[in-house]
Amino acid sequence: NNLNGASDTIIAYCFANTDGYIKSGSYVGNGNADGTFLYTGFKPAWFMIKDVSNSNNWILYDAQREPYNVMDSYLNPDTAGAEESGSIAEIDFLSNGVKMRTGHVAFSGSGRTYVYLAFAENPFKYATAR
Fold this sequence. Notes:
The chain has one helix at about 105-110; strands at about 20-30, 35-40, 45-50, 60, 75, 85, 90-95, 95-100, 115-120. It is mainly β and about 130 residues long. It has a 4-stranded antiparallel beta sheet with strand order 1-9-3-4. It has a 3-stranded antiparallel beta sheet with strand order 2-8-7, with no helix packed on it. A two-stranded antiparallel ribbon has the order 5-6. The radius of gyration is 16 Å and the shape is globular.
């Protein structure tokens, strides 16, 4: 009843990793002040992360609102809150992935498990030109 009750509305978002376009996965944080590096194989335009070891909110970064590193402005898409920012939530979008700039528990806490989803800024690996 908690997941599939007769009157419940269920929404599922399903993604498949596609080289040069989308990358999803999980990792364990290192708690290091230098943060964790995630290899995506492309420069992200959009990156969302969730600490599944805790009840922290989803965190969303994008290159449209903050096009330069160090990025510290983010949204919590599972709340009605406004954009937030701060030095505890600094990350970089690199040519081949995402680098956490701190060991904050929201995305790099020691021993915590995180899930993430990233979309490429320039998804043209398999483009066919004429």
